[in-house]
Amino acid sequence: MCPSSRPRSGKAASTWRRRSYEKAESNLRLGLSMWSGRALDGLEGRVFETERTRLEDLRLGALEDVATAGLEVGRAEDLVPELKALVSLAPLRERSRTRLMLALYRCGRFTEALEVYETGRRLLKSELGVVPSLELRSLHAAIIRHDPSLQGPASTSYRMTSTRTDVRPAPGEGNPIRPPERWIEPLVAAAPAAPAHPNARGQQAMAAVVERAVHCRAYRR
After folding, report:
1. Phi-psi bin for 132: left (phi > 0), alpha (psi -120 to 50), beta?
2. Beta-carbon neighbour count of residue 212 at 10 Å?
């Protein structure tokens, strides 16, 4: 659907937004499912290490975007296990932590959401000597006061292709919880073709989806 034909208000607009997020989540999961093993495995040297780090960071960003889209369609409960695994592998990555906190809160697991924040706060202080980002602190405060803006859409549960979280990323900053609709539009049409080779072409296809998301994520700071 082109922007000029997008519903602007009412039930039609709500349905359009939901379907857009569902499509974005599906496309991202499809791309991520094509990833197999370590990027550029077997190739050593500074150039390959730099590119490997970049691709893995994009992959972790895509996993976080999967959660962002899933939260927008009411899949908080389904996303909790994936986000817990991601935070466990990347404990200093605040963007993953904010999504886990929000998912737990929307599941009614208020105390757990606060514990996730406190664990991250202590870790950031001990490992990096810094305080949590403004976004993480703001979400923590909103959870404490039960801010109505944290309430998501009605809960839904449907089977999606699971995503792997077995790559340890570098620390990263968090981003706003709710992305604007313009972030979703490029992903709706970005589904990659099935690869002939799961490691090489699959990673290229996944990277194409993720890079398109990264370049179009206007909401990122």
Report:
1. beta
2. 16
Helix, strand, or coil (residue 164): coil
SS3 162: coil
- Distance (Å, whole) CA 79 – CA 209: 21
Q: Which two tokens stand for residue 139?
A: 């979400």
Rounded Cα gap, residues 75 and 156, in angstroms = 5
Q: How far apart are CA 131 and CA 128, in angstroms?
A: 9
What's the pTM?
0.67
* Tokens linked to 165: 């979280």
Q: How far apart are CA 138 and CA 175, in angstroms?
A: 11
Bigger pLDDT: 8 vs 72: 72
How would you label 175-210 residue by residue, b for 16+ Cβ within 10 Å and e otherwise?
bebebeeebbbbbbebebeebeeebeebbebbbebb
CA separation for the pair 62, 101 (Å, rounded): 18
Rama region for 126: left / alpha / beta (φ>0; ψ in -120 to 50; rest)? alpha
Task: Give pLDDT tens digits for 59-91.
Answer: 999 999 999 999 999 999 999 999 999 999 889
